[in-house]
Amino acid sequence: MKVTFITHSSYFVELEGCCLLFDYYEGEVPQVDKPLYVFASHCHGDHFSPAVFQLAGARGQARFILSNDIWESRVPEALRPATVFVEPRRTYELEGLKIATLRSTDQGVAFLVECEGKRIYHAGDLNCWVWDGAPRFQNDQMTQVYREELKLLEGKDIDVAFVPLDPRQEADFDLGMKYFFEAAGARYVFPMHMWGDYSVVPLFKSTPPYREYAQAVMDVSAPGQEFEVD
Predict the structure, then answer these.
(1) Where are the alpha helices (H) located in 65-150, listed in sequence order?
(2) What is the rounded distance in angstroms from the CA atom of residue 205 to the CA atom of residue 161?
(3) Dihedral over alpha carbons 185, 190, 196, 198 (to 10 degrees)
(4) 164: closest CA among 138, 201, 132, 131?
(5) Which phi and psi (to 5°) does residue 66 adopt?
(6) What is the C-alpha to C-alpha distance for residues 214 and 95, in angstroms, rounded to an integer?
(7) Cα–Cα distance between 61 and 111 in angstroms, integer?
(8) Which one, of 192, 203, 198, 112, lies nearest residue 159 by Cα?
(9) What is the pLDDT of residues 3-55, one digit of tens each?
(10) Cα–Cα dist 48/158, whole Å
(11) Is the dihedral of CA 171, 173, 175, 177 positive or negative?
(12) Region of residue 88 (phi > 0: left; psi between -120 and 50: alpha; otherwise: beta)
């Protein structure tokens, strides 16, 4: 499969028979003549924009899988029959795709998608949102809730994962990625939600406790990068 980094948390995955687009709000999307499934994990402006309907709807083979915190009124009326609104902790089957949702620690859902024999995880804003200066009990509760949600991924044998690595969390930027690897891991892990600061990727990979994960973490450093993975 080919994975293209669009920007921020948006990735495009090309499989043999179809393509998946996650959390698009801006940027250039590869032009591929295959059925397209568009996922939006929640309504935040850095994860969803109605522009995606102009981009994908014109292809005529697009389906939309949107978190149910996105208002139906934001979907063009003509595309509503091609749209599925999903809730946390549910499973859905759609034209050969099996989709399981997790509950975000911020808003909306994360996606675990099974398609063409591959398992693909996109975290959305499901992350360990620990912040310097926040009350200790709040950070402890966040960590507990995040790790509990990740238990749903245990034993899933994930091929490709898109996981936040947010530099705004400063010293705690690594926690979401760390706990993801401890709970499940994946053959290929693509950092996201980096706000253009890609220095956190080599920083994570070079941190001694995480060197065992380094080979799985892809060297994302600029929008438009393409990666061929098996």
Answers:
(1) 136-150
(2) 16
(3) 80
(4) 201
(5) -120, 140
(6) 35
(7) 21
(8) 112
(9) 999 999 999 999 999 999 999 999 999 988 899 999 999 999 999 999 999 87
(10) 24
(11) negative
(12) beta
User: Environment class of residue 215 by beta-carbon count within 10 Å: exposed (0-12), middle (13-18) or buried (19+)?
Assistant: exposed
Q: What is the DSSP letter of 228?
A: E
* Identity at 5, one-letter amino acid code: F
Look up tokens 């996922």; give the residue: 39
The string of pLDDT tens digits covering residues 46-80 is 999 999 998 765 566 799 999 999 999 999 998 99
Position 54 scores a pLDDT of: 84
Q: How far apart are CA 30 and CA 168, in angstroms?
A: 29
This prediction has a pTM of: 0.97
CA nearest neighbour of 21 among 191, 75, 31, 196: 31
CB 64 within 8 A of CB 88: no
Residue type, 145: V
Element (DSSP H or E) covering residue 188 = strand 188-192
DSSP string, 3-43: EEEEETTEEEEE-SS-EEEES-SSSPPP---S-EEEEE--S
In the numeric block, the tokens 């253009």 are attached to: 196
